[in-house]
Design a protein that fits this description.
Length: 309
């Protein structure tokens, strides 16, 4: 699993580096990721924050347009940007729809034999990538990890974090999400993904891949921040369901200190609100996240509270 450096760019005094390697977890396919190392990484090991992108995205979206690198440099935090799915598996039907297959791995381990060899993003993110980075002797302190994400990536961040706590691993100290798919067993995106990737379908997903269901059975202390926009069309259409997650958290005894879910008036699902100016920048597949650029620094600072100790 040796790393090949693809490119490197200086940013905010640190380095944003793109790597690729042959991934055993993804069935021997090449996997790309970006890693931002802040300036302080030249003198000491730094904590790491993993960012999971949403449907149709790659490892580049958050790195290039999320507005995270400046705050991360200030706080002395590395950021890992994985891809959203395996690529080039050659499975029939994986490129037919934008919300399933390539670019839409849903951060699970597939059990449907058709997808099980390649679609294992859960293990890729939680086990394989940390192992690859550790083997490369990069200046990262893996005892201090947190995770965040957007939309499908927000779903991934929440479920990876909650699973870690539920099984006693405590891999991540905190989690945050922008417009996450919060209750995927009850929305069309999640139902499509789970019936396609999982042999047990919705019932299998309920046990491991739904944040609303997971927090109902959790007893551990949590550190969770969620933001969503009231003008988000996917929120309006019932794809995100953050209220379901909030109700489950409150019913489980988690107060607003441990679980904060904030509705942001007038914000949508897109990435393009930068420095209080609207930039009509359209991604090749989706308009990126207005909400992320506005509240991204807030999320970095939220995680810094837990990663510095």
């Amino acid at each position: 699993m040796s790393l090949e450096k693809v490119s490197s760019n200086k940013a905010f005094g640190g380095q944003l580096v793109k790597y690729k390697f042959k991934s055993e977890t993804l069935g021997g396919l090449n996997a790309n990721f970006n890693l931002y190392l802040p300036p302080s990484a030249t003198t000491s090991k730094v904590p790491i924050l993993t960012y999971l992108s949403g449907l149709t995205c790659t490892e580049d979206n958050g790195a290039q347009k999320g507005g995270f690198l400046g705050p991360a440099a200030q706080e002395g935090i590395a950021i890992l940007f994985p891809d959203t799915s395996p690529r080039g598996a050659g499975i029939e039907g994986e490129d037919d729809d934008w919300d399933f297959g390539t670019g839409a791995g849903f951060y699970l381990n597939a059990t449907n034999p058709k997808f099980a060899k390649h679609y294992n993003m859960f293990t890729h993110v939680t086990v394989e990538l940390p192992a690859v980075l550790a083997a490369a002797a990069l200046p990262i302190d893996f005892t201090r990890q947190s995770i965040f994400g957007h939309s499908m990536g927000g779903h991934g961040a929440l479920t990876l974090y909650l699973n870690s706590l539920y099984h006693g691993a405590k891999q991540y100290r905190s989690v945050s999400a922008f417009a996450p798919i919060s209750n995927p067993i009850n929305c069309p995106w999640g139902q499509k993904a789970f019936t396609g990737y999982l042999q047990g379908g919705i019932e299998e997903a309920k046990e491991k891949y739904d944040a609303t269901e997971l927090i109902k059975k959790l007893k551990s202390p949590v550190n969770i921040l969620v933001d969503y926009g009231t003008a988000d069309n996917f929120y309006i259409q019932g794809q995100l369901l953050p209220e379901n997650f909030l109700k489950a958290a409150r019913d489980a005894g988690y107060d607003e200190v441990q679980v904060r879910v904030r509705s942001q008036e007038g914000y949508d699902h897109s990435y393009y609100f930068v420095s209080s100016q609207l930039i009509n920048s359209i991604n090749s597949s989706l308009v990126l996240l207005q909400q992320i650029s506005t509240f991204g620094a807030d999320h970095i600072h939220f995680h810094s509270n837990f990663l510095k100790a």
